[in-house]
């Protein structure tokens, strides 16, 4: 894992839709840069926004040849007949890790694992607006439909566009077939793995019909034998096509071409040495708050460099780019869009030890009440410290001032922070640290956790978790003292998570805050009117 090294206030969580016959695990990753020492390197109309190298790991991750973005995750296929789901982790809009991989076998119409290289060589994946997945295969050139990955293949039906795409492959070489397949709201693009011939290499379909056409490799990669290798389409039916090439002694090249629904192709970028490149074969597009991001993934052909460089070895690189014109001005902080609360968000926190002694506290804010159960038995030092602030009215007229929003599903996601903000008239001396490995408590949805710089420095600032943030728990195996001890959980919200979510969705002041907190500070902090012990429940009737 790399995310802890990069930013000590951000964390990992595991979240992915249920898929059949899948193995899931936390992968081994290493951060990479497109250009060394230039984190926001610009090439053409693209801005590099982070990347990682993914190790083969126990599942032998590799051979990734197609990519698609849906519902906060990256869906991929590999040329050994497997599907993958990757959960990317962003910090301030930059890709810094992959926190979960799910992987399983693509199946045939009878629900059996695909047998042999000729049947299992998956090269492209795209999700239809109706929810089914389409997977393109080469060698045995075909397109299969899946109602769910991990389930059996189903018939694609009598579709002229898919029929034309398969027909395009009729005379294709076994290892040079349908590499590129993408669907928008009203369009389809499919390309074979060739270019520069009189024979059409692509099919474009829209409401106006189905048209074979030639999409040439752009200058800068054409001379190296560039061919289409994946595509992705936005809801407005603008599609992007990825070209790749490899030349011995020269290395890898890649190019991205934009295809508007009405208009000529536009080359967005040519990626060439000495940039960090590999055999890029997968492309996905993501739109977020009016910005457009492209993800590239490389196929290591199961000759991974993990364990040391050697002749002919390759890597699985996952990189994120932002399309220029959709990005904020240089140096501007990244503000992740607010998300409204859902019924799931409004659920109360769950106490791991409901029978343990606790004390109730009500935070009355200008947006509503938040009721907390302080874990006085499980975390006595931290809970009693919080109670002292309550009893001495040190929280009265303080504020919730920070909304850290995580760029992942489910939304909203992150934490809300408030308290004394180191006001010397309010704060008390720091307290002894109570790690979650000692208390048994955890940073699940609705948990309260002490803010701190290092263990033993917590005083009068605290955070409330929105969705599970268990990466903030103590990790006894970590060498860094902060992560070895984690943050101290001391209570859970029992009522008022809707209020927490509403405050979390308040407007952000982009220029407030310092360092990694810039872009997370509320434009108008929400006042905590008072903090009081909750009335004791009446005794049971005799």
TrEMBL record:
Q: Signal sequence: where? A: 1-22
Q: Which InterPro entries match?
A: Cyclophilin-like_dom_sf (IPR029000), Cyclophilin-type_PPIase_dom (IPR002130), E_coli_cyclophilin_A-like (IPR044665), Phytase-like_dom (IPR027372)
Report keywords, A-Z. Isomerase, Rotamase, Signal
MF annotations from Gene Ontology: peptidyl-prolyl cis-trans isomerase activity
Q: Where is each PPIase cyclophilin-type domain found?
A: 365-533
Q: Name one Pfam family in it.
A: Phytase-like
Q: EC number(s) per UniProt?
A: 5.2.1.8
Q: EC top class, in one word?
A: isomerase
SUPFAM superfamilies recorded for this chain?
Cyclophilin-like (SSF50891)
| Domain of life per record | Bacteria
Q: What is this protein called?
A: peptidylprolyl isomerase
The record lists the lineage as:
Bacteria, Pseudomonadati, Pseudomonadota, Alphaproteobacteria, Sphingomonadales
